[in-house]
């Protein structure tokens, strides 16, 4: 436990709250970096995911790509891009955007797919245009799953942004690597604790958001669906047809 | 290419290191998650505690966990045990949910029928519920295997040798081929493990071959690294 009190002392040490290595500065770097990466990834993945979800086209490709991307080790991608573009913040941005896209994309299209086809047929029957269906039916109903995708992506970016300090002078990860180099365990542990706290706080915030974005009138039904879609994670995914028709997939 | 050809021995050694680090977590997490997942499904109180705990654990980034573990369990900072234990924890965090949902996916009618023809709770679990939730468990284990193989590489930055060492070494010495070789080998290893699991699933659950992937798969949220 002595190690932990050392780490807490390190966090509370006023010397670590000023200068270029100040904790607030590193923390905000980490947050800004995460936010920007998520924005870029969302700008690409959300429209694409909506398109796939609405039309049902390109789903196979999306599943394969996002499944394959998960097998790629982040450290490998990070170091490779860093060699290409040079040491600096560009490499982490590129690598992390690539990694953040699959979960967001999957959240966007599975959100649409989880909607009962009859609901969408009904919307079409009362005269909604395709754009209206997307805007007023599919997006609100698919939102919890999209937020779920954003949640996974955020966790991943927070984690990998720590690793990104290996190739760039960036974020809370600096403390881990600086401490490793100077064998300062209090710094390493203190930095680690800060990253873990940050991840847990964001996880909590997302859990709250996810609860609030369920539209009124849609209750428990969506919850089971929500846990059911795995964001294109395995090839044993249910075929899109049964999902789209809303029929039970299991042959009973 | 020349780098790869002249360093085949090194790559092979790192592959073996990688297998040694990734196999124990994959096996261990299944063994540990099975009773925990059962417990999570069985009682309301334990469900809340176990699933919340698993969710929080899963949110902890891997690199900081590698640093925190030595302080908790007293291992050396560069001990491979840190990586094995950390990855086992992640596997458990993911599989607990999968096991609980897998057991949930067994039809209540089937469960009652099993009891009605005389199965005890113990034998019903092993002979009815576990086999029937097999496809869901398999899907979960495939995710665990792939992400474990990928996460082992992170250990390289704290000095635990694996295929990830090819990334750190290649980066420091500016050898692209080394990093690419590491990437290919890691993905290849992940695919190999994945294939082995699929094969094991076919052998252990011959009935799923005819039905195909009929059952809705388990909830597996994925956020690696």
TrEMBL record, chain A:
Q: Superkingdom of this entry's organism?
A: Bacteria
Please state where this protein is localized: Cell membrane; Membrane
Q: Name one GO cellular component term.
A: plasma membrane
- List residues of the ABC transmembrane type-1 domain: 27-206
The name this protein goes by in its record: ABC transporter permease
Give the membrane topology, semicolon-separated if more than one.
Multi-pass membrane protein
Instruction: Quote the InterPro entries the UniProt record gives.
Output: ABC_transp_perm/SBD, MetI-like, MetI-like_sf
Q: Which keywords fit this entry according to its UniProt record?
A: Membrane, Transmembrane, Transmembrane helix, Transport
One of the protein's GO biological processes: transmembrane transport
Instruction: Tell me which family the UniProt entry assigns to this protein.
Output: Belongs to the binding-protein-dependent transport system permease family.
Transmembrane stretches, start-end? 31-55, 67-87, 93-112, 145-168, 188-209
**Region Disordered: which residues?**
222-252
Q: Which PANTHER family match?
A: GLYCINE BETAINE/L-PROLINE TRANSPORT SYSTEM PERMEASE PROTEIN PROW, POSSIBLE OSMOPROTECTANT (GLYCINE BETAINE_CARNITINE_CHOLINE_L-PROLINE) TRANSPORT INTEGRAL MEMBRANE PROTEIN ABC TRANSPORTER PROZ
From TrEMBL, chain B:
Instruction: Give its localization.
Output: Cell membrane; Membrane
Which residue intervals define the domain ABC transmembrane type-1 in the entry? 15-197
* GO CC aspect terms: plasma membrane
One Pfam match: BPD_transp_1
> Which keywords has UniProt assigned to this entry?
Membrane, Transmembrane, Transmembrane helix, Transport
Asked whether the UniProt record includes Flavoprotein among its keywords, one would answer no
**Signal peptide (residue range):** none
Tell me the protein's name: ABC transporter permease
List all membrane-crossing ranges: 20-40, 49-73, 79-99, 143-167, 179-200
Q: Topology relative to the membrane, per the entry? A: Multi-pass membrane protein
Instruction: Say yes or no: keyword Amino-acid biosynthesis present.
Output: no
The record, for InterPro entries, names: ABC_transp_perm/SBD, MetI-like, MetI-like_sf
The processes (GO biological process) annotated in the record are: glycine betaine transport; transmembrane transport
Which family is this sequence assigned to? Answer: Belongs to the binding-protein-dependent transport system permease family.
The cross-references to SUPFAM superfamilies, in alphabetical order and at most eight, read: MetI-like
